[in-house]
Amino acid sequence: MKALLQRVREARVVVEGQVVGQIGAGLLVLVCAEPEDSEAVGERLLAKILKLRIFSDEAGKMNRSVQDVGGGLLLVSQFTLAADVRGGNRPSFTAAAPPDLGRRLYDAFVAQARAQHPQVQTGVFGADMQVHLVNDGPVTIPIEMR
Predict the structure, then answer these.
(1) Among 80, 93, 94, 130, which one carries the catalytic annotation?
(2) Is 78 among the residues known to form the active site?
(3) Is the distance from CB of 42 to CB of 56 less than 8 angstroms?
(4) N or C terminus: which one in the chain shows less Cβ crowding within 10 Å?
(5) Active site annotation includes 22
């Protein structure tokens, strides 16, 4: 699985003019499943995200996790993280999981997150979403878990 983490002061997802997920300070996590992924890969990815020390401590050093600071998680499915642009000017998305597998792995990832973290919001799998965020830092970190 691939994820792109953005430390945010706030973020929200809008679908058809309606806010479907919203957090204050925390992490916006764009998540992409690939065909060889499993729920176990998602569990390892989530563990890394929850423990990653990318929030500032009292000394201004990135030394605290989203759990340490009580931040929110906004989880958004994003198959385009699997884009391959090596072959031309139009991206190929064949490295992304097929929709049924992608939905199953995304739903499992969200369920795991809700079981382990008190503040989890989501987008809508497969929907045309508008994602609004105020990136804090900016801090943007890609993670790939196999």
Answers:
(1) 80
(2) yes
(3) no
(4) C
(5) no
